[in-house]
């Protein structure tokens, strides 16, 4: 199985690198490594695990129902259902989800 | 299971003339209950960078206790990511004539995870997780996103499920048996599309359910494009309780967008109740007349201009409750920051009796005084003492929605506040000496959502 290097970057400057096989999700490996990424439904419906892909390729195990097309075009990804297809750089942490959904009345 | 011997408090139920749990009538719940000493509160870390599971807080609300207003115990869930939200009892006053049943087990769903926890409160101050229904078991019934838990007579439990196994529509209802196993899907699939809260009134063979949206729509946060696309609900479903079929659907229209909490009055004889339309910020009165159910808007909260906001700010009526004596309706405007009390002695014509302001975008950020803690969110989940004299509330709505409207809630955590209510005079006043701080845990600040008392409350007890 091909293994890829995934670099996770938090807004406060923290960086971690994990090796993820092509049939594993980024989230499951990050959890195994105890990195403390946020998550919720684990099925791609809720967007709690949203990250932002800044380099590389990911493929989904199932449809990312929590993301709209324009959010996907802007690089937002659901790490609970995303498997790597190349080395990747991903912005992570709860701020990414919060940034994706701003106050609609403001 | 707890190995702690039951305290006298645990054994101190007032059963009146009942053999089972709860009280024989709503009036008995008022006169035979003792003032609440502890509160169970849903507490959560989901959607933050705190690497810890959500938990059940046991809050000391006994003013004679040395640990008054403190969180005296925490029951941590085994997994991260649940979003503990609403919860309920295995049995309530609807089973008051059924011997052998006790109000003892809390049924605590994870709104995001679809995991269902059963917690034993035999030792009230030190509850223990007894068993867990894992998400995969729930998905087998093509349901997800468990929300409202009501016990139904005979010891079974009914849970509103807001989505199918994909987190899309249709939702439905999941039934558990008295061994806390999945009995099956309660409703024939397709009776409803959207689901949210429900309440049943057995003497009239009716259940009423409301509508939020598909989980994949509301989970990520609130998007006006979803409202414009019709992805949020505006209907009430009137069910034949025993036949499990929708007999009538009421479209509340533009003024009834996102109808959430459904509250019947407590008298088993009544056919009156209320539902709050969160987005439209209106309260609808529903009632039966000539064999038909009707819903009429009876309270309209005006949106307000706020400096720096492009659009007028709706009140966002998210929770409401009816006092046990059916005399008052309370609701909160989560975005504005006020909690209102209405005289409903004529249910069709609610009369504003009083209100308090605490937090929100228009209320005082320091409602308990300059030296108190800053209140980030607005009044959200409400709970009233059985005697109707103490109203409590928490400030978090839903992790992703909090992030949009009160981002500071993630940084500082929620609070639980209280107002003293005078039912005789129809007034209430914020208790400046009461504040439970959910922001000061070693793991980090937590959000707080639904509140329940060990001996039943105004939002869970139903009478046959």
UniProtKB/TrEMBL annotation, chain A:
This protein's species is Halocatena pleomorpha
Q: Which Pfam families match?
A: Fer2
Keyword Electron transport listed: yes
Q: What is this protein called?
A: Ferredoxin
- Identify the residues that the record assigns to the 2Fe-2S ferredoxin-type domain, covering every copy: 4-96
Cofactor or coenzyme needed: [2Fe-2S] cluster
State the family named in the UniProt similarity comment for this chain.
Belongs to the 2Fe2S plant-type ferredoxin family.
Q: SUPFAM superfamilies, per this entry?
A: 2Fe-2S ferredoxin-like (SSF54292)
List keywords of the entry alphabetically: 2Fe-2S, Electron transport, Iron, Iron-sulfur, Metal-binding, Transport
Q: Which GO terms describe its molecular function?
A: 2 iron, 2 sulfur cluster binding; metal ion binding
CDD domains documented for this protein: fer2
TrEMBL record, chain B:
Q: Where is this region: Disordered?
A: 1-26
Pfam families named in the record: SBP56
Query: In Gene Ontology terms, what is one molecular function of this protein?
Result: selenium binding
Domain of life of the source = Archaea
The record ties this protein, via InterPro entries, to:
Se-bd
- Family, per entry: Belongs to the selenium-binding protein family.
Q: What is this protein called?
A: Selenium-binding protein
Instruction: Tell me which species this is from.
Output: Halocatena pleomorpha
């Amino acid at each position: 199985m091909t293994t890829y290097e995934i670099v996770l970057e938090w807004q406060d400057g923290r960086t971690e690198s994990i090796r993820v096989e092509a049939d594993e999700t980024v989230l499951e490996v990050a959890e195994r490594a105890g990195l403390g990424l946020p998550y919720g439904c684990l099925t791609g419906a809720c967007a709690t695990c949203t990250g932002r892909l800044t380099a590389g390729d990911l493929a989904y195990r199932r449809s990312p129902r929590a993301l709209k097309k324009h959010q996907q075009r802007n690089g937002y990804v659901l790490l609970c259902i995303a498997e790597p297809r190349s080395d990747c750089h991903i912005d992570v942490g709860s701020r990414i989800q919060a940034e994706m959904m701003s106050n609609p009345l403001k | 299971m707890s190995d702690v011997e039951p305290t006298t408090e645990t054994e101190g139920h007032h059963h009146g003339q009942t053999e089972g749990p709860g009280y024989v009538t709503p009036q008995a719940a008022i006169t035979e209950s003792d003032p609440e000493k502890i509160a169970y509160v849903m507490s959560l870390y989901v959607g933050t960078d705190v690497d810890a599971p959500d938990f059940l807080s046991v809050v000391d609300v006994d003013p004679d206790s040395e640990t008054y207003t403190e969180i005296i115990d925490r029951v941590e869930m085994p997994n991260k990511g649940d979003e503990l939200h609403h919860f309920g009892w295995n049995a309530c006053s609807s089973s008051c004539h059924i011997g052998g049943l006790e109000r003892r087990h809390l049924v605590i769903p994870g709104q995001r995870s679809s995991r269902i926890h059963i917690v034993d409160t035999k030792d009230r101050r030190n509850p223990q997780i007894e068993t867990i229904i894992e998400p995969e078991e729930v998905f087998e019934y093509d349901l997800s996103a468990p929300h409202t838990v009501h016990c139904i007579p005979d010891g079974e439990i009914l849970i509103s499920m807001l989505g199918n196994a994909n987190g899309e529509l249709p939702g439905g209802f999941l039934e558990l048996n008295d061994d806390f196993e999945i009995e099956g899907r309660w409703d024939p699939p397709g009776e409803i599309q959207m689901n949210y809260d429900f309440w049943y009134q057995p003497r009239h063979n009716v259940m009423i359910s409301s509508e939020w949206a598909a989980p994949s729509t509301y989970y990520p946060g609130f998007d006006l494009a979803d409202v414009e696309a019709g992805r949020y609900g505006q209907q009430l479903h009137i069910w034949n309780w025993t036949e499990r079929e929708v007999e009538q659907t009421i479209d509340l229209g533009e003024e009834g967008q996102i109808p959430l909490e459904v509250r019947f009055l407590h008298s088993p004889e009544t056919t009156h109740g209320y539902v709050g339309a969160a987005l439209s910020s209106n309260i609808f009165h529903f009632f039966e007349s000539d064999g038909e159910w009707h819903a009429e808007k009876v309270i309209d909260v005006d949106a307000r201009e706020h400096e720096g906001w492009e659009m007028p700010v709706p009140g966002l009526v998210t929770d409401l409750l009816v006092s046990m004596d059916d005399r008052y309706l309370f609701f909160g405007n989560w975005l504005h920051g006020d909690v209102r009390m209405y005289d409903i002695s004529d249910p069709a014509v609610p009369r504003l009796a009083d209100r308090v302001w605490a937090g929100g975008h228009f209320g005082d950020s320091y409602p308990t005084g300059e030296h108190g803690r800053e209140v980030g969110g607005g009044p959200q989940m409400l709970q009233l003492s059985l005697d109707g004299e103490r109203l409590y509330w928490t400030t978090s709505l839903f992790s992703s929605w909090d992030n949009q409207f009160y981002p500071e809630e993630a940084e500082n955590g929620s609070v639980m506040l209280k107002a003293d209510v005078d039912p005789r005079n129809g007034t209430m006043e914020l208790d400046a000496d009461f504040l439970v701080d959910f922001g000061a845990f070693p793991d980090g600040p937590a959000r707080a959502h639904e509140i329940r008392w060990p001996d039943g409350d105004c939002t869970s007890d139903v009478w046959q």
